[in-house]
């Protein structure tokens, strides 16, 4: 899933602080001297929603109950992210500065995900790598020694998505299911999901909401994951709810966080994009790697284009523009995956963030190539590309790449999806699958978008991955920096070859599953060099992202 941001779309505490000279256009040296107003100004407020007047009354009622589920999952995610969040949020609600409360709710905690997770409130500790999934002070070495003593079934749970690790009074580690750990919130959430299922008009959505409610109680998520994949493309509502992303677990990237999206389906755009699902295997065959690094078990990814009505839980700013789920490898093997593109969020990001950035960092003669269609289509291809390349270590079919790369996995996976998506764009343009967009538009818009992502900070997967790509492509002469103007340009005669080289590099690093080599690659490239820091400094007044104002919360059912 593509969560465009920090620690849980998550801050990676392993990113070297020395690499961060400037992030998001604000000097890290300012630290807590940044005012609340300055922090809030980085996110342009946007109203999100669509006309729901044509929805049947039962769907309206379902949306109301689903929003109540989201409120519960907001509380649950705060508990997952840090043990102190609940008490701090209560103090902010009753006695805090409204601006501090707004920031807390945007970041889902007291750490500024853009400023390398520095606290923006006093008397707050450093953000714990293990969030609240593991006992405080647990080290990787202690965890791995304990896992080695477990049965095969418990070992899978310990390294899986849906169990927390706790320590008893004698200091012994043990597992507790999400269903038990969060029962006070999951039980009422399950009841509301059942109520929504009872009124929603589409039978397939009804089945998913009901089975997901059952999963909240049983801790068995696989059946409802498959039901989510089977939601009809005729359903007017698209709902995603449950534990999905592992970014918040910066210790191992094992544990999933709860989140929720309520969307209205954009039928016209979905139909236009269905053709891309047919290209997955074709692109895989063209990847610039030996055959053993290619995925021979690809499934066409269904694509759904939606407009966001509401989001909750693990949905901090910067906002998610698209996601490809599920993340559970068992569900992917059995049912494939589904890509959800959030069109109204993408339009907001392009207008409020990307266009202003491009005007300040791109060579002026290449600004004419900037294109929302290129931006939109690359996001689509990025999400499809998560399915491309090896899912398991080469010649070790039972060993996932995620388990080998651990905390480095998210960065390499986002970088892979970016660069393979760009590789696919050039190929599909030549094939005539993509029309109405030029290669110049793809590469130029991608270059501008690199700075948009890097501004999220090198403490998160997308920003760190984009920094690595930018530096690699400059070293390969695909992009160029003009020190005289402080602007960047695409070398159109070199960029396609440079993209191919980088795609090969990342796919092989992933397929080999060699964590030390991946770390060396990221240490070399995933940094902000002087030219990037200078460019970021010029963007200080440009919003980094958008912050949502959900219209659905202000309308009656």
Automatic annotation (TrEMBL):
UniProt entry keywords in alphabetical sequence: Hydrolase, Metal-binding
GO molecular function: dipeptidyl-peptidase activity; metal ion binding
Gene Ontology CC annotations of this record: cytoplasm
Alphabetical list of Gene3D superfamilies matching this protein: 3.30.540.30
InterPro entries cross-referenced by the UniProt entry: Peptidase_M49
Pfam families: Peptidase_M49 (PF03571)
Highest taxon above the source species: Eukaryota
Official protein name in the record: MutT/nudix family protein
């Amino acid at each position: 899933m593509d969560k465009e941001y920090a620690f849980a779309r998550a801050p990676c505490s392993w990113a070297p602080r020395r690499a961060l000279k400037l992030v998001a256009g604000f000097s890290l040296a300012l630290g807590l001297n940044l005012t609340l107003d300055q922090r809030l100004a980085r996110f342009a407020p946007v109203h999100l929603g669509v006309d729901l007047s044509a929805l049947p009354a039962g769907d309206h009622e379902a949306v109301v109950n689903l929003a109540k589920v989201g409120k519960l999952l907001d509380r649950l995610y705060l508990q997952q992210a840090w043990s102190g969040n609940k008490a701090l949020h209560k103090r902010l609600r009753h006695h805090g500065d409204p601006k501090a409360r707004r920031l807390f709710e945007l970041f889902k905690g007291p750490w500024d995900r853009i400023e390398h997770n520095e606290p923006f409130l006093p008397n707050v500790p450093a953000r714990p790598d293990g969030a609240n999934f593991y006992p405080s002070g647990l080290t990787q070495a202690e965890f791995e020694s304990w896992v080695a003593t477990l049965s095969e079934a418990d070992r899978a749970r310990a390294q899986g998505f849906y169990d927390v690790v706790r320590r008893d009074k004698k200091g012994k580690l043990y597992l507790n299911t999400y269903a038990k750990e969060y029962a006070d919130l999951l039980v009422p959430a399950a009841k509301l999901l059942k109520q929504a299922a009872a009124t929603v008009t589409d039978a397939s959505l009804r089945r998913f909401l009901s089975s997901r409610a059952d999963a909240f109680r049983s801790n068995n998520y696989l059946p409802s994951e498959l039901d989510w994949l089977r939601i009809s493309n005729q359903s007017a509502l698209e709902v995603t709810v449950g534990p999905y992303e592992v970014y918040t677990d910066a210790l191992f990237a094992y544990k999933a966080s709860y989140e929720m999206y309520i969307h209205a389906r954009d039928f016209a755009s979905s139909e236009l994009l269905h053709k891309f699902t047919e290209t997955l295997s074709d692109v895989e065959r063209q990847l610039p790697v030996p055959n053993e690094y290619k995925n021979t078990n690809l499934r066409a990814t269904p694509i759904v284009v939606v407009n966001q009505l509401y989001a909750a839980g693990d949905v901090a700013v910067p906002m998610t523009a698209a996601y490809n789920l599920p993340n559970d490898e068992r569900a992917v093997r059995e049912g494939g995956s589904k890509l959800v593109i959030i069109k109204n969020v993408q339009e907001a990001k392009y207008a409020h963030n990307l266009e202003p950035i491009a005007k300040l960092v791109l060579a002026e003669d290449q600004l004419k190539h900037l294109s929302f269609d290129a931006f939109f289509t690359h996001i689509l291809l990025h999400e499809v590309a998560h399915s491309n390349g090896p899912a398991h270590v080469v010649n070790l079919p039972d060993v996932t790449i995620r388990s080998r790369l651990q905390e480095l996995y998210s960065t390499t996976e986002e970088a892979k999806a970016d660069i393979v998506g760009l590789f696919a764009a050039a190929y599909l343009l030549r094939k005539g699958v993509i029309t109405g967009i030029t290669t110049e538009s793809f590469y130029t818009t991608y270059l501008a978008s690199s700075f948009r992502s890097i501004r999220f900070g090198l403490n998160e997967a997308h920003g760190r991955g984009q920094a690595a790509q930018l530096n690699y492509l400059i070293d390969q002469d695909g992009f160029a920096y003009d020190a005289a103007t402080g602007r960047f340009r695409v070398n159109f005669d070199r960029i396609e070859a440079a993209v191919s080289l980088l795609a090969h590099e990342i796919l092989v690093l992933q397929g080999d599953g060699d964590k030390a080599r991946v770390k060396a690659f990221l240490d070399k490239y995933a940094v902000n060099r002087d030219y990037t820091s200078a460019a970021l400094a010029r963007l200080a007044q440009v919003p980094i992202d958008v912050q949502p104002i959900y219209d659905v919360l202000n309308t009656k059912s």
